[in-house]
Amino acid sequence: MRFMRSERATLDTLLPGLDASLARFPLDVLERAPSPAIAAFRAAGGTGLVVPKEYGGLGATPLEAVRVQRALGARCPSLAVATTMHHLSVAPLARVHPDKGGPERELLTSVARDRLLVASGFAEGSAGQHILRPHITARRRPGGRVVLDGSKKPCSLARSMDLLAASVTLPGDDGRARLAIAVVPAGAPGVEVRPFWRTPVLAGAESEEVVLRNVAVDPGMLFITEVTEEAVPDRLNIDGFLWFELLVTASYLGVAGALAERVVTAPGGGQDDPAAFTLGLDSAMLAVEAVAYAMEATEWTEGLLASALAARYAAQDVIARTASACLSALGGMAFIGSPEGSYLASAVAGLAFHPPARARMTDPLRDYLHGSRLRIG
């Protein structure tokens, strides 16, 4: 079938054997916790997908990465969502000091060489909680030590993570709190994982609560940004948001694609016009790919991030319409006979819950269109 063929070809080229490994398991096994998908991803070398080749990674371009995520979303939604969080934590570090050695290079090398999974502890999951004002705080201690306290919920890959990359608030010398990114080993004293995810939908992503109590941070693994209370993203955060919005959108387009495939390949499905199920998804993916192309050719700016947000929110609308059309086309007997269609239709709804929520970006995007800096709601 030609639908999503280029995405699956990219997956097979960069992570050969992964799709075949996942295909051995039924969807309900892949989507439960613990899922065999995470181990298969690690074994295939997926942890190094977006790590530059000079650090021992696969060096996938943004375009290749979004195609991989769409293919994974079509095969295993939980894995696509979970690995988006891993890539979000890893990819921006390659641009911190690209021409120098240092802790970033050592970290990226270890992620690729040792196949380490990095959980993303960035602000998310609380209604009204500002994404750039996390629940984890950092405090300076005598001798230059920094300790962390707080929690992140949900936190994907919580059970399988080797490292946690968490956004924290850190008091600055000028008295203003700044956003910082801290990377801590999963086994560090004071790190605890607690059950949190109570729905079977996307349970395989291992999205639990990670609690930090007086956790010491290696000073070399603390990256201080320029983000303050105004919530205007700096370069590191623009990089992270660009990667996240594209990867998470592609992942859910893959999930919706899996639902569409079940319609057009079902007995009698060839009688329906496939445009209602596939063309909208492909159009949304083209918007994602356009931003990914731009990431390879132009400077990563607020304007490019605004384009990524536009692609993501447009995809949400397309996915919602497509999921509804697919369930209607599959009909009542398919709904009764197999849970897969209803499961996939439920899973695609998750895109609307990832930050920044569309409603919270209404004012920032309007202000940006009128000449203000782009704030993240």
Search tags:
377 residues, alpha+beta, Butyryl-Coa Dehydrogenase, subunit A, domain 1, Butyryl-CoA Dehydrogenase, subunit A, domain 2, 3 domains, 4-stranded mixed β-sheet, 46% helix
Provide a descriptive summary of the structure in words.
One of its GO terms (molecular function) is flavin adenine dinucleotide binding. Keywords: FAD, Flavoprotein, Oxidoreductase. Residues 33-94 form the Acyl-CoA dehydrogenase/oxidase N-terminal domain. This is Isobutylamine N-hydroxylase. There is one protein chain. With 377 residues, the protein is α+β, with helices and mostly antiparallel strands. It folds into 3 domains: 5-113, Butyryl-Coa Dehydrogenase, subunit A, domain 1, CATH 1.10.540; 118-224, Butyryl-CoA Dehydrogenase, subunit A, domain 2 (Beta Barrel), CATH 2.40.110.10; 235-369, Butyryl-CoA Dehydrogenase, subunit A, domain 3, CATH 1.20.140. 46% of the residues lie in helices and 14% in strands. It is built from 12 helices and 8 strands. The chain has a 4-stranded mixed β-sheet. Strands 2-3-7-6 form a 4-stranded antiparallel β-sheet, with no helix packed on it. The longest helix is centred in the last third of the chain and has 36 residues, at 302-337. The model has no long low-confidence stretch (mean pLDDT 89).
